Amino acid sequence: MAAPAEMSPSKDDPPKAKTTLDKPSGPQAALTAQSRDILAFFLIFRLINALCVHTFFQPDEYFQALEPAWDMAFNGESGAWLTWEWEYQLRSSLHPAIFGLAYAAANGVMDFLKLVPSVKATVLVALPKIIQSVFAATADFYTWKLAGTLYGSNSNATWAAFWVSVFNPWLWYCSTRTFSNSLETTLTVAALYYWPWEILGDAKESKPQVALQQRSSVNRLRMSLVLAAIAVLLRPTNILVWLAVITLTLTRFTLDGESPLQRSSLWVLVREVVLCGLAVLAGSVLSDRLYFGFWTFPPYKWLYFNLSQDLAVFYGHMPWHYYLSQGIPLLSTTFLPFVLIGLYKATTSPLSESVLQANTLRTLSFTVLTMLTALSIISHKEVRFIYPLLPILQVLAAPYLASFFITPTSAVSTVATEHLSPVSQATTRTKTTLRHKFFLANILSINILLSTYLGTFHQSAVVSVTTFLRHEFERLHPDYLSLSQPTQHPEELFAFFSTPCHSTPWRSHLVYPALRARALTCEPPLHTAPGSAERINYRDEADRFYDDPVRFLGNEVSEVPRYIVGFAGAEELLNKYLEGTIEGKRTGIKLNKVWEGFNGLFNEDWRRRGKLVVWDTGIYNGKGGREVTRKYI
């Protein structure tokens, strides 16, 4: 791999007919057209993906992206729920700013067109999905491009990487969600594609030109560093990816051949790292200054609270092997055997066409192992924390996947191909036929079933309930649908969520500021010292509700809501208070089920099992929302 595949067309390429002198012709024009087609395919595919996914995965999809974005677009009186991380500046404003600007622009256009509030609300709810579908498609596109750089643009391995992106259940389930990890993945794989991999080659095999001395190479380096810097600012752990790449580049540890980097090239590398890093850092600091109103540096705050204050443990403690036993299998699903083979082969003895290809594969595998090792030391673990490694795993697995399911049938004789490695077979341009079709059909069927269930049914009610409540508010309060700061609110608490904290989206789906709602919170014990008895025994609001609902409802809930939202098991807890205590009977509440939704076949949290239900308390009439009597718990 002396150069990207796009710059090294195969001798087998048929001659291209010339068109005009002004237009590119030949293999390069065909590759450019192919790239446009692939990008268009992924854009359409991920848009459909985004519009088909109606389920809930993790609260950060909404509370670390869309809630602060809503706050940016519609001011502090919009009803957005800003969690403690935003109060203490642990998060960069760069990610939500993307959606905040889109919210503001879309709302301005819809105001100009004088669209009715219900239509505006529907558009604003769907808008982040549409934006994220572009980021997801871009990640798929650059995964394909990275594979093409390694194995050749039209190789079987490159197309294997393409189809893995299409049929991977994790990508269908998560890539179009507005996690910072999703954007981090896009930035990481694009940065890896633009990274000047030729600096990992062997000086004896390199071209006469000195590495990083050509303008095109330096421009690619700059693009890579800018994207990498943004990824690191969004998610500080992303620095592990680039520490691994740069460490092997400079030390040549485990790499073959002699480094083509000379002193002048090293100076260029250091210069660009500093300049690109400072430029991105300046933009981030300015963005945070505009959002928070004062100078702050979220990466430092993030490190302080998660390491010094040890607050990450408050959100879960996983065993050291979590990423090996659960993380990689969940990312890879049925493609796991090929991922493990590709990772092992690339780490130990890459079977490659050149020193450069072998060194690149080994660097990518070293990057995966570095990040897995470092993150395994941290107590709090989630699969999405290693999501940026998925494109690398797909690229490493691609040649072994291709060689298992594809048999070359022409251009190279059977005898000639028997001695070739899987990488060599997969990167050979030949006419091919599929093999192991039964196994392939089963893999694809399982992946399609997983994607359909996870994207359509698993934890779907916690999203659709917000649509029900929003439509009910539009029906009952048509005069309170302004998205600007409302001058009046209906004299009612519209909904009380008795679900565990952050079980549903919030203002990004409820939309209207006048729709007042309350949910159980789970703020961490910031006032306590790490390891103290007070922290160990700390119970947040959601814990206190499920520990003793009667006491909680009697002491901590004051205003009677129109609707109560909870999982089916909560009805017994609510009736225990409403029918079994004097205070509960005085409220006059008689629970009447008005909506329920299927929320999946299973849930690891017993508090979230069963259908999600909405009960009408009967305290308010059905016209205009005026109270029959003003009652409190």
The strand order across the widest sheet is 4-3-5-7-6
What portion of the residues fall into strands of 2 or more residues?
5-15%
- Quaternary organisation: single chain
Backbone structural class: mainly alpha
Q: How many DSSP E strands?
A: 7
The overall pLDDT, averaged over residues, is 87
Largest sheet: 5 strands, mixed
Helix fraction bin: 55-70%
Low-confidence spans:
1-24, 411-420, 624-633
Q: How many structurally independent domains?
A: 2
Which radius of gyration do the C-alpha atoms yield?
28 Å
Q: Which outline best applies?
A: globular
| Helix run count | 27
Note the gap between the termini: 72 Å
Q: Helix and strand layout, with pairings?
A:
Layout (H helix, E strand, L loop, with lengths): L26 H26 L7 H4 L2 H9 L9 H4 L6 H20 L3 H35 L4 H12 L1 H6 L5 H15 L20 H20 L4 H13 L11 H30 L5 H11 L13 H11 L3 H13 L6 H23 L12 H16 E3 L5 H5 L3 H5 L5 E3 L2 H20 L4 H16 L16 E5 L9 H4 L6 E3 L13 H4 L4 H7 L1 H8 L4 E7 L2 H9 L3 H5 L5 E6 L14 E5 L17
Parallel strand pairs: 3-4, 3-5
Antiparallel strand pairs: 1-2, 5-7, 6-7
Function: Mannosyltransferase involved in glycosylphosphatidylinositol-anchor biosynthesis. Transfers the third mannose to Man2-GlcN-acyl-PI during GPI precursor assembly.
Protein name: Mannosyltransferase
Family: Belongs to the glycosyltransferase 22 family. PIGB subfamily.
